[in-house]
């Protein structure tokens, strides 16, 4: 994570299901019950940065405070949909920083298959992004839905492809005007 | 610090670079030789041909002081041939046609010959291998390349074609046909796979997208790469390392 | 450098031969394209830039001389107008060519310097730390421990001292003093506008707490477009520790690849690949 990078800060703010293993006095505020204790077995969605910190005991092999679960954006159901047709899935509604979330989760969990699915998804969708950036189909049809469903990484990719294609037209236009 | 330009030179800077390509002119007036910052310029004596950088050739052309002889590839026949190769040849259907060879690089017809890179030396003693825009790839007679070489699109073909059609179309042979052929060329390159033979403008256009794709694939694959490294280190420690298995596509791509 | 290189460089020793003028211009152009292609600041080619700046200065003088000589000419009368024109028919043309050539070279130098300044200001702390690591008398670590023991630490204390550094690499001398002055000003501005009001332990600009360093450096794992110029150039696969390196694919002459910058930087330094 880089210190001043807004996208990675926002990625770390995305929520993750966490299950408390121990009783924590006075931490009920996380559940919306200020002053109460947290009981073992409580499931709460916590921001990634907090969940990661609280689960650190688990990775050190000592008694852990919480165990982490896969966020719903990366659930089995989503993975199956991505395997079927990556282009029809609305990634943005799953997580605005979908791939960055995936990268962070892969630092915490060993999930070989997740790597492959994300890579395959990204490659197929990137090809479509390039196509859309060079041949915009206007505000009709599948194109709009696809573009609306781009995650932040894909949006930046679309912008890069689109801007350069435009600059190139400007350059050749300039050459024509002279 | 106000420097808004993204990483990698922009299309207009690529055009600026292409203006350093040498072209052949036929001067219409005399001009003594000049010592320019880009190197010396030979004296112009009509009707003797001379090699000049494109920016200077265009400056003289606009003032009707010289005519530009089209680069040997910028004629209808060689363009038709290249178009045929790009669309017909099974090796190039999803790729770019081969670029003109660099000095010391065997031509496509001498396949199998080993290349011999012959460096020049800078005043500081560093090796320097010339490359576009500083090779005679756009002169009327391509010096240094044998005539049996098939025609090839130089690195700055988009810019060269664009600028000459704009400012010197009366010096071109059948400019309208050339304009049509140049339009067809990138379309057949489709798929965008092998990059060898890619043009400068195509690099400029695709840079942001491609680097974005490769960088994100690297990030997604980082955990797997880490695991692979640990495995490799372990195998190396056990003296059983097999270098072949770490050739993963996200490390380098030739598309 | 091998023995052939040394002999060849003696043969072509430094000097103002016409070839070295165009070779220098080509090297400058290639360096500019490279500097625009990567996130890090490339090693400043001191000798090349000194020669270029000298030539630019001399060219400006000679353009001024030519312009003055045309102004000195007697005012055109009906008698000598033709004679004057015949005497120097191409004066204006020559001037416009020389000026265009000068402007093009100046554009490259300006764009090069501005690109470097943009990177320097973006990664200022990174480069200052890098420079100060070559400090000769270890005054850096002393001043830091002093500042930490002070009762009122300020953001300015985080700016490394580069007064005794042994090398400016990869910067030029003026870039090094620029980035130091820039960071001092920035730190004092931060201090005055908000950081001075922070708790003492939050006033540093080089903090490492929480495992995330405040000092951001350029990304060297990003990919670049390269053309292979040598007969065969291997791409290095750099490991985590930067010491461990494996050889990946081998690029052949004339090939264009998209590769990680860290894997071809060594070959770029030797001139065996060029950045596109």
TrEMBL record, chain A:
Its main location: nucleus. It comes from the Eukaryota. One of its GO terms (biological process) is mitotic DNA replication initiation. Residues 74-172 form the GINS subunit domain. Keywords: DNA replication, Nucleus. The keyword Nucleus applies. It holds the Pfam family Sld5. Gene3D superfamilies: 1.20.58.2050. One of its GO terms (cellular component) is GINS complex. It is found in: Nucleus. Residues 4-55 form the DNA replication complex GINS protein PSF3 N-terminal domain. Belongs to the GINS3/PSF3 family. Component of the GINS complex. PANTHER family: DNA REPLICATION COMPLEX GINS PROTEIN PSF3. This is DNA replication complex GINS protein PSF3.
UniProtKB/TrEMBL annotation, chain B:
One of its GO terms (cellular component) is GINS complex. Residues 10-69 form the DNA replication complex GINS protein PSF2 N-terminal domain. It is found in: Nucleus. This is DNA replication complex GINS protein PSF2. The keyword Nucleus applies. Residues 136-145 have a biased composition (Polar residues). It comes from the Eukaryota. Keywords: Chromosome partition, DNA replication, Nucleus. Pfam families: PSF2_N (PF25005). Component of the GINS complex. Transmembrane segments: none annotated. GO terms for biological process: chromosome segregation; DNA replication; double-strand break repair via break-induced replication.
TrEMBL record, chain C:
Pfam families: Sld5, SLD5_C. InterPro entries: GINS_A, GINS_bundle-like_dom_sf, GINS_Sld5, SLD5_C, Sld5_GINS_A. The keyword Nucleus applies. Keywords: DNA replication, Nucleus. Residues 218-276 form the DNA replication complex GINS protein SLD5 C-terminal domain. SUPFAM superfamilies: GINS helical bundle-like. One of its GO terms (biological process) is DNA-templated DNA replication. The keyword Iron does not apply. It is found in: Nucleus. One of its GO terms (cellular component) is GINS complex. Residues 81-191 form the GINS subunit domain. Residues 138-155 have a biased composition (Low complexity). Residues 1-24, 138-162 are annotated as: Disordered. CDD domains: GINS_A_Sld5, GINS_B_Sld5. The GINS complex plays an essential role in the initiation of DNA replication. Belongs to the GINS4/SLD5 family. PANTHER family: DNA REPLICATION COMPLEX GINS PROTEIN SLD5, SLD5 PROTEIN. This is DNA replication complex GINS protein SLD5. It comes from Penicillium cosmopolitanum.
